[in-house]
Amino acid sequence: xxxxxxxxxxxxxxxxxxxxxxxxxxxxxxxxxxxxxxxxxxxxxxxxxxxxxxxxxxxxxxxxxxxxxxxxxxxxxxxxxxxxxxxxxxxxxxxxxxxxxxxxxxxxxxxxxxxxxxxxxxxxxxxxxxxxxxxxxxxxxxxxxxxxxxxxxxxxxxxxxxxxxxxxxxxxxxxxxxxxxxxxxxxxxxxxxxxxxxxxxxxxxxxxxxxxxxxxxxxxxxxxxxxxxxxxxxxxxxxxxxxxxxxxxxxxxxxxxxxxxxxxxxxxxxxxxxxxxxxxxxxxxxxxxxxxxxxxxxxxxxxxxxxxxxxxxxxxxxxxxxxxxxxxxxxxxxxxxxxxxxxxxxxxxxxxxxxxxxxxxxxxxxxxxxxxxxxxxxxxxxxxxxxxxxxxxxxxxxxxxxxxxxxxxxxxxxxxxxxxxxxxxxxxxxxxxxxxxxxxxxxxxxxxxxxxxxxxxxxxxxxxxxxxxxxxxxxxxxxxxxxxxxxxxxxxxxxxxxxxxxxxxxxxxxxxxxxxxxxxxxxxxxxxxxxxxxxxxxxxxxxxxxxxxxxxxxxxxxxxxxxxxxxxxxxxxxxxxxxxxxxxxxxxxxxxxxxxxxxxxxxxxxxxxxxxxxxxxxxxxxxxxxxxxxxxxxxxxxxxxxxxxxxxxxxxxxxxxxxxxxxxxxxxxxxxxxxxxxxxxxxxxxxxxxxxxxxxxxxxxxxxxxxxxxxxxxxxxxxxxxxxxxxxxxxxxxxxxx
Amino acid sequence: xxxxxxxxxxxxxxxxxxxxxxxxxxxxxxxxxxxxxxxxxxxxxxxxxxxxxxxxxxxxxxxxxxxxxxxxxxxxxxxxxxxxxxxxxxxxxxxxxxxxxxxxxxxxxxxxxxxxxxxxxxxxxxxxxxxxxxxxxxxxxxxxxxxxxxxxxxxxxxxxxxxxxxxxxxxxxxxxxxxxxxxxxxxxxxxxxxxxxxxxxxxxxxxxxxxxxxxxxxxxxxxxxxxxxxxxxxxxxxxxxxxxxxxxxxxxxxxxxxxxxxxxxxxxxxxxxxxxxxxxxxxxxxxxxxxxxxxxxxxxxxxxxxxxxxxxxxxxxxxxxxxxxxx
Lengths: 738, 327
What we know:
heterodimer, A: 738 residues, alpha/beta, Rossmann fold, 3 domains, eight-stranded mixed beta sheet, 31% helix, B: 327 residues, mainly alpha, MetI-like fold, 14 helices
């Protein structure tokens, strides 16, 4: 069988004011029918540029060299008119953000039909019917009617389904999916990944999956190409890469991600530093500056991608995974030659293990001068990367209930009026954004708040930060009820509760130097000039920034460093409680680890309490002591983080945990997956009884009598066994999903 | 929806009524219709003047509020907007002058919208190329040149061409002139007279439309959905017209609706330069001629045009943008 797509020595260079930017340098790979290759790397590593160059959609100013053949037909050098006949027909693409990727003024059915009309001699009517059928295929309910809807009337997940329908429309030979799930909730991500696998199966296409999520790669790729500074630094089958990575960057990337399925009390290994500027690449290995085992030669000569030597029969260091090399080899050769057969989209429980491993072995290649040593000694991330020490928190010996409460929320409610109308807004109902929730955080403790977008996590945070009397229920911060505070007391209390925001780009004023940003809260509270100066320097050191950075502006810092500035500002007044709203989700994985370590270190040092919102459940497991799962404004399960992850009792928690791919292909293949159907229901009109019943996989297995209870009666929080595990489900039972 | 529109119209009507009343009171207080007769030779008998002023409801011996009452009741009962100090009927003046203004502006406005939007969209796709830079330079030049300069310059040029060719290709004084003896001669004559003022209007207005559209188009060209359209297999030019331009036309739609509605209020300078007795010139004349009723009527008419423009642009946006229509 020959390659559907063959990329040889592809390079892309853009002109820029500061000289040429070499975005892709000498990339090669081949892909056959039905195969999937993951293209992994940090932002700016050249992943998206590669995909656009294959599509011929790069900027006209870009210089593309090398060869891209699609079934032996050379694509580089074709005109726009020639490429237009290939795009959409033989190569289809799914983009990251499905809201901006669909034209807002045309209906979704029309946009799919357009794809068909461009490449086929069919009537408009036929194209429309086919578009409706495609929408049905990708799981849009009531497709004939919904095809007339506009993109803004669809949720993110449904829009991505439309994009996939569009990609499938002409039975392409190659599908390029560029971060197809990055903008989506985890539950929706699982749906979309299943759907992509189905689309690939139905069309028999080869697929390039561009993503920064190693879990997604482990779950759905045959091969992996790891890119760094425009080059492939490691290439191989997914099993090889994940279990025997041979290039320090890959090793670091894999080790630096917190694991959903493992308890961890230690710090994460840190991949320090940032990728080099692409217009001023250093002479040697571009990773050398961040590589703890770099030799002098690494700084002078760039290593070429070369075959990784065979491993010694007995690995010197024990592999981190519970299976032996023999098993890996067996699974590689046993993989059936036929295309994968994913479960139909309608099945509530699918087993991702249905996807066989790759049908062929490709050579494992890595670009590193020390690859022979790494393989010989079997070095893993712990051998190469430094794991910082974490201070032992002073509270760790005291049981949580004996500590003072830092934050207590009882029966908190918040409703928003729902407005509708084109030319004027009329009141059409109320949304219960937060619906009678109870939670408490003790001193030195971290509570993670998880749930899909729209579940009320952020509203809860904002309510706490407001420090005012809530609509109903009560909030008590460090023993002060916010309803009874005077204006002066409220200001006083603000010193003790501070916030770190998600987007470090937006959360610091670009026109202020770092010193002023960090000093601002202290100025508000009337600190003296000298004290402020001393404290800012102290804070900069604390968050791992250099004192000499104080006079620079935020634009001179990377995302991770900006987040550190945000943390320094939050710490300026010596708070007791920090509210963290997705503190690491906007950062690249290698940067994440450093910020996570910092947060844990600060907690240990100052006994801080964290209220943490994150959509990444692996991050929550790593940082949090306890976790609360929210659904449509209510907490459905709360408890110790290990207990909840290992023995989840609410079907929603189970679905949420099982939706997260684990960056380990062997584990991913063996997992049972609970896939949720559909989107979050309209919060203005939630279902009666249990709000989750419309999407509940357990509900469908109940008898009619049992179901009646779910429909009529809202489940109350009750003990789920253990001292600190509460769940709101009539039929709660443990399902292990890890 | 209907109730909402009615409510909004009622709001506008109240607003308009207040505005017009204020204009009337201000004009009645400041303007002095007696001055029209003051310089007459031979002098007119003051008693005769006073008599006329009383007849036309302009007498300063009647309290302003009382005049306002009479003026208002005339409008409400017989749609009579009053008379000028010389006795001309305001209703007739407005009617004939609106006609002149429309004849002057219709062709220029419509062609400038079409051509300006087209050029703007096209230059956006050729950003920083020579064609874009040349057109950008020209349109900035035309936008920043006052229209009377363009008008006078075009007249100088027209005279020169007429002289060198010996033919009367260009006519530029008034709406009509010498008419030939062939079929449709009258129509041809009118068109001949329209040519230069239309050209002057067209150049300024197309230049500004092209600037607006270029910026809108640049925004929408950078959008992901244009990339999606190309990824589907649309060639660049088609992806641009069908996806980028269609979206970039939404804001233009509101601006066009407004421009069309306010077209009726005329273009004072162009009318003056080319001696068209349109409504723009009427406003200037009424102020100079101490015509309280005329000033008020022009103000009222402009107000109505602006309101119609606002409503039209709301409707146009709703038609063009499903997010507004259904959201």
